[in-house]
Design brief:
mainly alpha; 2 domains; binds tryptophanyl-5'AMP
């Protein structure tokens, strides 16, 4: 049985990108694998250190995981900061991670550009903490979106480096995973690159249907195709990319055909897109509202999850300490 791990930073509500990039894939795997899904609250400190909202943000993400369908009876759900063993592995991996390679990471360069007043060491070592999250359970597969590919590559590099340095075959080399298909990138509704919390272009899983309709109807379009079978400009392609994941193949083909024959009406496309997004998100939103009231359930899920996660993490740390030469007196 493979070990699967994934996580999402607790920096606000989850959006369609989080769902289709990571969460849904994880849910599809939970019954056949040994699954860990965690809330990356330490990671949130690199950009959002705010004691007033930290706990509420963790709770939101936790409730969204549960509402989307992670079953705590089957998979282990835990909060990163409830499993302190990960910090020890983070420290150890940092001793074998180099300034140059960390500073070259796309995510670091992007964040350093976005928050030049706060280029902290946590941002620089973000990939080692992420590697520690994965290696602490010696995961085989990591369901993530396309934007995390580079971090997974670095995780494999750190695992290999550790094994080579200490002359062991201890850490596995985990693979970014999407059922043998290309990793997904859900685009934003503003015609730009990816849907992202900091880009302000998201449809959130808990958005009210009316809000979703409004966001979709406002998406950038143009005067229509310039001729039969014309290539789609990026902002139109983006709408089709989202349609592909939320709708049926028939619906996708119908609008593709309309595009190719220059008979497309963007209003119809957007109406269909909004309706299909709402079909996916409505049940999640409804379950979310119920789950977020149930404090006893949330307490049970997180305490039991932390216990199971720590059991797995303790085993890894014990071996790593031994390999590195730590010995009790
Ligand atoms: P985060 O919180 O930015 O995103 C969580 C997951 O959602 C995916 N994702 C997307 N997928 C497709 N299209 C998009 N527009 C989109 N936006 C986000 C991300 O690829 C990710 O899978 N560093 C991670 C959190 C993390 C983690 C880990 C993940 C920390 N440790 C260990 C896996 C394993 C992050 O910031 O993801």
């Amino acid at each position: 049985m493979d070990t699967v791990l994934s996580g999402i930073r607790s920096t606000g509500n989850l959006h369609l990108g989080n769902y289709y990039g990571a969460l849904r894939n994880f849910i599809r795997m939970q019954h056949e694998n040994n699954c860990f899904f965690f809330i990356a609250d330490y990671h949130s400190l690199t950009t959002h250190p705010d004691p007033k909202s930290l706990h509420a943000n963790v709770k939101e993400v936790l409730c969204e995981y549960l509402a989307a369908g992670i079953d705590p009876e089957v998979a282990t759900i835990y909060v990163q900061s409830d499993m302190k063993e990960v910090i020890e592995l983070y420290l150890m991996l940092n001793m074998h991670a180099y300034m140059g390679e960390l500073a070259k990471t796309t995510s670091f360069k992007e964040k350093a550009r976005k928050q030049p007043e706060n280029v902290n060491a946590g941002l620089l070592t973000y990939p080692t903490l992420m590697a520690a999250d994965i290696l602490i359970h010696n995961a085989d597969k990591v369901p993530v979106g396309k934007d995390q590919e580079q971090h997974l590559e670095m995780t494999r590099k750190f695992a290999r480096r550790f094994n080579n340095f200490y002359g062991v075959e201890f850490f596995k080399e985990p693979q970014a995973y999407n059922f043998g298909e290309e990793l997904i990138k859900i685009p934003g509704l503003d015609g730009s690159g990816k849907m992202g919390k900091s880009e302000g272009n998201c449809v959130y899983l808990c958005d009210e249907p009316k809000v979703i309709e409004k966001k979709v109807m406002k998406a950038l379009t143009d005067g229509g195709p310039t001729g039969p079978n014309a290539p789609k400009p990026d902002y139109i392609e983006n709408l089709f990319t989202i349609l592909k994941v939320v709708s049926t193949q028939d619906t996708y083909d119908y609008f593709d055909e309309k595009w190719n024959t220059c008979t497309i009406r963007y209003g119809d496309l957007k109406k269909q897109l909004a309706a299909d997004i709402i079909k996916v998100t409505s049940p999640i939103r409804e379950r979310y509202l119920a789950i977020s009231q149930d404090e006893a359930f949330l307490h049970k899920v997180t305490t039991e999850g932390a216990e199971k996660a720590r059991e797995s993490a303790t085993k890894t740390i014990r071996s790593v300490r031994e390999i590195m030469g730590f010995k009790p007196f």
